[in-house]
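As a warm-up, study this chain.
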Amino acid sequence: MSADADARAVELDPVIHAQARLRLTTTLAALPAGDRMAFPRVQQLLDMTAGNLATHLRKLEDAGYVEVTKTHRGRSPVTYLALTRAGRRAYEDYLAALRALLQAAAPSTPTTAGPSTTATTEGDRS
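Now compare it with the structure written out below.
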C-alpha cells in the first residue's frame, strides 16, 4: 500500500478531532485513570467560556468519553469531569491514528543529521 493510501486509510475520531474537544480530552487524559477535575479548573486551563465548554462536554459525554458528576461541596454545587475508560481508549486510538497519519506522510528516504560542520581556525577565515 502506498503512503497516500495509508494516509487515506487512517480515520481520526470526529468526536475528539474538533480542536476544543481535543484540548479537553488531552487535559483530562493527563490525569491518572480514575481522577477527575472540577469544571472551573478545566475552564480556566483551557480559557473557554462555561457555555462553550459545556457544549463540547455534552458531545464527549454523549459519546461515552467523559463522565460528568454533579455534587455539592458544603452548600455549593460542584461539577467534576473525568475521562471514562472508553474515553481514554478512544484518545489513545486517536493518538495512534494521528501518528500513523504523520508517519505515512513523512518522506520515506532517510534523513541526515544535518549540515556537515567543519572546524575553522582564525587564520582560515577570509
